[in-house]
Amino acid sequence: MINKIAIIGGGNLGTAIAKGLVNAREPYRGELVVTRRRVHLIKHLEANGIKVIKNNAEAVHNADLVILAVKPFQLKDILTEISSAIRPDAILISLAAGVDSKTIAEMCPGQKAIFRVMPNTAISIGESMTCISSFNATAEQDQTIRELFETVGVVQFIPEELMSAATVLAACGIAYALRFIRAATQGGVEIGFGSDLALKIAAQTVKGASELIIRGQSHPEAEIDKVTTPRGITISGLNEMEHQGFSSALIKGLVTSFEKIENGSRKK
Length: 268
Prior knowledge:
Layout: E1 4-8, H1 12-22, E2 31-35, E3 51-53, H2 56-60, E4 65-68, H3 75-82, E5 91-94, H4 101-107, E6 114-118, E7 128-135, H5 139-150, E8 153-157, H6 163-190, H7 195-216, H8 220-227, H9 233-243, H10 246-266
Parallel strand pairs: 1-2, 1-4, 2-3, 4-5, 5-6, 7-8
Antiparallel strand pairs: 6-7
Helix pairs in contact: 6-7, 6-10
């Protein structure tokens, strides 16, 4: 049972996780602590019953679960700072992209169960796609972490070697999807809608498209075929987008992000 969770790093993702956990379908009822150097920036979390402090060692004291929501280059210093305060049986979760579990274990000797977890910011509303890999964890600990993150979205356990790819497809991917919505909104304005109405239509259309795939367990091309007719307006638009490099640009963007993570890991 997890009675206390400490989130080290109250940035965008750490804050989103905290909000998601307390506002989940099955809200987290234990003690939840979030840290940040400039603690005034996360004071608003207190309205949700979340404790906010500066001291990382104090935050992890007696915590069952420690979530490291910090940048990769900060990880070593943070682990050095909290290593004497963290319980040996505590579960350690790292959100730092590109830093493998073995390296984390070397940074924090004596810590057994280590998870690498990559949610996205939709975790704040319970709609994250969260990818998880485990290291030296028991089946019971795997289940504990699965159940915790299933309260704030969909969970998929993956081999650790796919964590960098998961970071790009799920975490960076939400930004790519939002950029599509923004572009569709701008296009909607070009063809006559006001910006607010164009945004509403574009966002709901993307949501509907996603649900067709998720609920219907269909393939995107099968759904595309249903709305493209010979000499029709949809296929004309799609073909023009492809001529302009739509799919190619998206794939290149994904690969570029992935290569940046991989190059960063090799430099360590």
